[in-house]
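Just scan my protein:

——
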Amino acid sequence: MSASTSGGPTRAVVVDDSRFMRTLIRTLLEDGDVDVVAEASNGREAISVVGEHRPDVVTMDIEMPEMNGLDAVEGIMNECPTPVLMLSAHAEADADVTFEALDRGAVDFVTKPGGEVTSGMPRVKRELVEKIQSAAAVDLDATRGRSRPPTADTNRRTTPDTAPSASSKTDLPEEGSTIIIGASTGGPNVVERVLASLPVDAGLRVVVVQHMPKGFTKRFAERLDARCAYDVREAEDGERIAPGQIRIAPGGSHLLVTADRAGRLALELSDDEPLHGVKPAIDLTMASAAEVVESPLAGVLLTGMGRDGVEGMSRIDRAGGHTVAQNEETSAIFGMPKRAIEAGCVDTVAPDGRITDETLRGITT
């Protein structure tokens, strides 16, 4: 059963302008032991209903009359801060709006139930309820009030003002050092801040596994590319990854790091079954990197619920790599990092603003 902070079932408010969709979501949630305490048909009504009922979590549609979901998220965060889970359509056009909702304070998103409901009801219900549980567990104090990093000039070189303190010209990691970053709920904005602060002169190879549905990771990569001085793209099967490149694991595929006979790193997509209920799985990417990467290697595990990444961090640690976990105070959900720390495979625990420094420090030669 999904539990609220008061010890009872998780209490949710469902916001959607479609009566059919509100009824469907209510049914799915109540079948998963989530208590739907109220509904709203537009953003303005949502702000009022959330203030009245004080739920643990809100499911929020994007396109609604009178006030859309973006403005409603902002209003809720200003008047009655509550974790908001966005319901986004599969369409790529919705991806940009969804990321904007995360910027305004939403904690996560899930694809809105559609035509697959009749054929895949158990899967749809499980995904929605799990996302509700995860969103309800978010520590808003750890996520609010953080500014987005400035858009990066992709031609810039690092300067004393832009480079992390650990990465002065004489202390840069060896070119071609590899970093594997794993994140889940609350991760996109943290990933953005970490990548935006990587020094260009380091020539790093970075692989990011962010739990995210298929259809959104390409837009996530494009968004990061506009805010980072590295070349950021969604990973493709069989491509080599070179210094100065960041690749994002595609939603719906596992991503493995491999090496050819010359020792050059490449990326391989796998259609294996989900691991820990997720695809891509952080564990698989980290474990594969630990097997083949011979240059300095670091694993970074950020905010998220569950234990994905724990085994991967252990593999990197055993292979002699450096491991960094986000601390509790700045994690939206201190689940994955906590389990890795408890497993004894983390070298450094750091707040999100120090993740880059501590990662670079561990792979500096």
About this structure: The longest strand covers residues 35-40. Residues 149-170 have pLDDT under 50 and may be disordered. The first helix runs from residue 19 to 31.
